[in-house]
Structures are given as structure tokens and as C-alpha cells.
Specification:
Blueprint (H helix, E strand, L loop, with lengths): L1 H23 L12 E7 L6 E8 L2 E6 L8 E4 L4 E2 L9 E8 L2 E6 L4 E5 L4 E6 L9 E9 L2 E8 L8 E8 L2 E4 L8 E8 L4 E8 L8 E8 L2 E9 L6 E6 L2 E6 L2 E6 L2 E7 L5 E9 L2 E6 L2 E5 L4 E6 L10 E7 L3 E8 L4 E9 L1
Antiparallel strand pairs: 1-28, 2-3, 3-4, 4-5, 6-7, 7-8, 8-9, 10-11, 11-12, 12-13, 14-15, 15-16, 16-17, 18-19, 19-20, 20-21, 22-23, 23-24, 24-25, 26-27, 27-28
Length: 350
């Protein structure tokens, strides 16, 4: 009996030790992101701006442009050069997202068309329709699984503004158009936040002559939309969201925040008045911020310019529309309104 008691005591001690170890395990703090990039700039010979970019790796990157030139709307980077296959496709793509080199989706700026790349060619796979709408413009595609992702955008209201919100959930091999009653505006971004497993979306509402244009952030849970934040759609005030390391970051004017216990928690206050409300990153200590005069990097403690634009004082401002971030390389799609150049800034860590 004594032996059994000793064994039982030992087992209990081991279990307690294992449990306490599990409870004490925490995610390691990320290291401050590096800044020693070597930059090159490529010019894409396209009619319109290049606005979305995605890649499975730094040697397999795709960029699209919302252009009436249907021969040059899709571009590919193989690690050395950018090229287009010059195939005519009746789509003006505006949304791009992928899950692997052989499973990539794009959406059109009109007609609700969805195309898919299977590793060898692009093919139209569906055309989204919603009762009462003559047209659907797809703004973005995002998801964490090829069997579970979202397509967002809008359709025209009775004034012709694209304010009728569209959210389509692809799951169980079906395209399910969600109920968006109560939402007014173009759904620009939608992401799932890993820490609280909630979905957040950002809309742009076009006011026209009746009200100011505005940006609005919602939380979507249990089939309901909870309005969290709204602001004017103008430099210095506008709101946005970004997904960094599976966590949603909120841009609230000059503040970057997370969502903790249903409250905004400030990550960073940006004093630079040139901040232009878009961010991308690898983790909380490796974030890229768009400025009207260039690109700034935040490493968890301070901010520093990585490069300045060639035409920083022009209006409208030079913009970065999207980014593809890899372990040692980054790509940014840049448009210079004054020169009408469509550029890819490509940075490699030394």
C-alpha cells in the first residue's frame, strides 16, 4: 500500500508540474524588425494603376490592375522579372488573394466575376449575383483557408453610388451571400481576428451631396453587425483595418490599436502628420506605415523612414495601394499621379 501511495504521489506531482509548465508557456516576444533593405524599383507598363499584390513566395508574386486594357491586367514576378502573358480576359480585376501557388483568386471591379488560377491558367469560375442589384464590384478577397474565405464589395444604390454592401462567404463549396441589412457602404476589408475569433470589416460610405464621405468599422458576430468606429474619409481622420500575423490592427485616425476584451487598446500614436492610414507588417514590432512622402517602419520602439517618394510634395499624393510581405523580402505597389508611373518597390534584407 505504501508503494502505491508513493507512486500515486509521484504521478500527481508530475501532472502538476506538466500543468504548471503549460500554464507558464507564453508566446516569445517578437524581435524588432530589421531595416537594412536593398531597394529596387520596377515600372509596370500598364494603362492603369496596379492596386493589389499577392504571392506564395518572393519568387512567385502576382499583381493586378483595374484596367480597360484586358491584355495586360495580370502580371507575374518570377524572382527576376515582371511579365504579363498578354492573354485577353474580359475582366478588370480589383481583388486578389491566394492560398498556394496553384490556388489563387481574383475578383472584377464590375460584374461580380471571380477568376481562379490553378497553377497553369486563369479561368472564370463564377459570377456573383444579388437580387435587386444590376452590378457587383468586388473590392477584396480574404480568408485563412481555401474552403473558408470571403469576397467583399458593393453594388450601386439608387443614386448610383456603390453603397450597397456585399459580403459573400465561400464555404462547403458554395458561394453564400450574407445578409447585410443595416450596412451602407463599400466593404473594403474583412478579416478574422485570431485572438478573439471575431470578424471585423471596414466600409467606405460615399455621401455625395447629402453627407460627407466616411469610413466605418464594424464587428460581425452571431449574424449581427456592431458599429465600433466611424470617421470622415479624409487624410488625418479616416479609419482602416489591417491583418498582421493573424491579428487585426485598427487604424483610427493617427492611432493604431488592437481589440482586447471588446475595447480598443492603443499600440501606437503617430505624430507625423504625413501618415496616410495604411499599414502592413509581419508582427507587432515589424510594421510598415504609408506616409504621403514615403514609407516608415516601426520596430516596436521607434519609427524610421525606409525610403522617400520621388514626388513627395505633389497632390494628389503618391500612394502605396498594397503589399506582399515575406520573411526577407517585401513588395509594395506604388502609383505616382504626377508621372502616371505604376511602380513596384522591392526590398531585400541584406
Amino acid at each position: 500500500m505504501k508503494v502505491l501511495k508513493i507512486i500515486a504521489t509521484l504521478i500527481t506531482g508530475i501532472l502538476l508540474t506538466i500543468t504548471s509548465c503549460k500554464e507558464s508557456i507564453t508566446e516569445p516576444e517578437p524581435q524588432p524588425g530589421r531595416r537594412d533593405y536593398i531597394w529596387t524599383v520596377d515600372t509596370l507598363d500598364i494603362f492603369y494603376l496596379s492596386n493589389k499584390i499577392w504571392g506564395s513566395s518572393s519568387t512567385n508574386v502576382w499583381s493586378i490592375n483595374m484596367s480597360p486594357d484586358f491584355y495586360h491586367s495580370i502580371w507575374h514576378f518570377d524572382g527576376n522579372t515582371w511579365s504579363t502573358d498578354e492573354v485577353f480576359r474580359l475582366v478588370s480585376p480589383h481583388a486578389l488573394w491566394g492560398f498556394s501557388a496553384t490556388n489563387i483568386y481574383l475578383g472584377g471591379s464590375s460584374g461580380g466575376k471571380i477568376w481562379r488560377f490553378d497553377g497553369s491558367s486563369w479561368k472564370q469560375i463564377t459570377e456573383l449575383k444579388k437580387e435587386g442589384l444590376d452590378d457587383i464590384a468586388i473590392e477584396n478577397i480574404w480568408g485563412d483557408s481555401p474552403d473558408d474565405f470571403y469576397v467583399v464589395g458593393s453594388g450601386p444604390d439608387n443614386r448610383g453610388y456603390f453603397n450597397q454592401s456585399i459580403i459573400v462567404h465561400f464555404t462547403n463549396k458554395n458561394w453564400n451571400i450574407l445578409n447585410t441589412n443595416g450596412l451602407i457602404g463599400d466593404v473594403v476589408h474583412l478579416y478574422k481576428n485570431s485572438p478573439d475569433n471575431k470578424i471585423y470589416l471596414r466600409l467606405t460610405k460615399i455621401g455625395g451631396t447629402e453627407s460627407v464621405d466616411s469610413t466605418i468599422i464594424y464587428e460581425y458576430t452571431k449574424g449581427k453587425y456592431n458599429r465600433l468606429y466611424s470617421s470622415e474619409y479624409t487624410k488625418g481622420l479616416q479609419a482602416d483595418i489591417s491583418i498582421i500575423n493573424d491579428e487585426v490592427y485598427f487604424i483610427l485616425g493617427n492611432e493604431i490599436a488592437r481589440r482586447v476584451n471588446d475595447q480598443f487598446q492603443t499600440v501606437l500614436i503617430i505624430s507625423n502628420s504625413n501618415f496616410y492610414h495604411r499599414i502592413w507588417g509581419r508582427n507587432s514590432k515589424d510594421i510598415f506605415l504609408l506616409m504621403t512622402d514615403g514609407l516608415v517602419h516601426y520596430n516596436g520602439s521607434d519609427m524610421e523612414y525606409l525610403f522617400h517618394f520621388s514626388h513627395p510634395n505633389d497632390t494628389p499624393w503618391t500612394q502605396i495601394f498594397d503589399a506582399a510581405i515575406f520573411k526577407n523580402e517585401v513588395f509594395f505597389t506604388v502609383y505616382e499621379p504626377t508621372t502616371n508611373l505604376k511602380l513596384i518597390y522591392h526590398g531585400k534584407l541584406e
